[in-house]
Amino acid sequence: MRWMLAIALVLGSFAAHAGAGPGRGLTGNDTGGIIQWTPETDLIYGDIAAAHCARWARIARITSVHRWYGEYVGFRCLVDRRYDPRKAWLYWAR
């Protein structure tokens, strides 16, 4: 019984640290996030932010851009005022 508890604690600690902190690429949630700046992402950071916010039916708004290595592009996910979640299920019912 103790070995099962020990395994559960070890696996739980690995799972808790799996996505913690800013990493490579994109880090964020439903309210916004950051994208690591590189010359390659400088051309498409708006598309990356829009795709991330689309998961929650929100619109991306870029808040800050720092164009040098080691910095990030910040963005927020805003709720579209025209979006009505009560009517959204009707689209799928058709």
Structural summary, described in words:
The protein is an alpha+beta fold. It is 35% helix and 27% strand. The protein contains three helices and four strands. The chain has helices spanning 2-16, 45-53, 85-93, and strands at residues 26-29, 32-36, 58-65, 72-79. A four-stranded antiparallel beta sheet has the order 1-2-4-3, covered by helices on one side. Residues 13-21 have low confidence and may be disordered.
Draw up the topology in text.
Elements: H1 2-16, E1 26-29, E2 32-36, H2 45-53, E3 58-65, E4 72-79, H3 85-93
Antiparallel strand pairs: 1-2, 2-4, 3-4
Percent of residues in beta strands: 25-35%
Task: Please give the order of strands in the largest beta sheet.
Answer: 1-2-4-3
Instruction: Give the CA-based shape.
Output: flat
The count of helical stretches stands at 3
The helix-strand sequence is HEEHEEH
What is the SS-derived class?
Answer: alpha+beta
Low-confidence stretches: 13-21
The residue-averaged pLDDT reads: 78
Helix content: 25-40%
What does the main sheet amount to? 4 strands, antiparallel
Distance between the termini: 52 Å
Cα-based radius of gyration, to the nearest Å? 18 Å
Give a nutshell description of this structure.
The chain is α+β, with helices and mostly antiparallel strands and 94 residues long.
